[in-house]
């Protein structure tokens, strides 16, 4: 089965925070991709992540990007 979810990542204080999926979210100070990877590990055993859209700082509120997490 190839389950996919789409998440947004927001800048939050000193780091980045994902949107909630099934009551779970993740945050990381390293970068937005690291936050998405942490959430992917919570959701799926085998997964891949893909950046769908990146937003330049300040152009879309505090949202920095849209990502897709897919189960493999």
Oligomer: single chain
Largest sheet: 5 strands, antiparallel
Report helical residue fraction: 10-25%
Q: Give the end-to-end Cα distance, rounded to a whole number of Å.
A: 7 Å
Strand order of the largest sheet: 3-2-1-5-4
Number of strands: 5
| Secondary-structure element series | EEEHEE
Helix/strand/pairing class, anyone?
alpha+beta
Mean pLDDT: 93
Overall structural domain count = 1
| Beta fraction | 35-45%
Given the structure, what is the number of helices?
Answer: 1
Shape: globular
The gyration radius over C-alpha positions equals: 12 Å
Regions with pLDDT < 50 over 5+ consecutive residues?
A: none
Write structural notes for this entry:
The chain is of the alpha+beta class and 72 residues long. It has one domain (4-71). It is 17% helix and 44% strand. A five-stranded antiparallel sheet has the order 3-2-1-5-4, covered by helices on one side. The longest helix is centred in the middle third of the chain and has 12 residues, at 32-43. The protein is globular, with a radius of gyration of 12 Å. The protein starts with a strand and ends with a strand.
Feature tags:
single chain, 72 residues, alpha+beta, 5-stranded antiparallel sheet, 1 helix, 5 strands, 17% helix
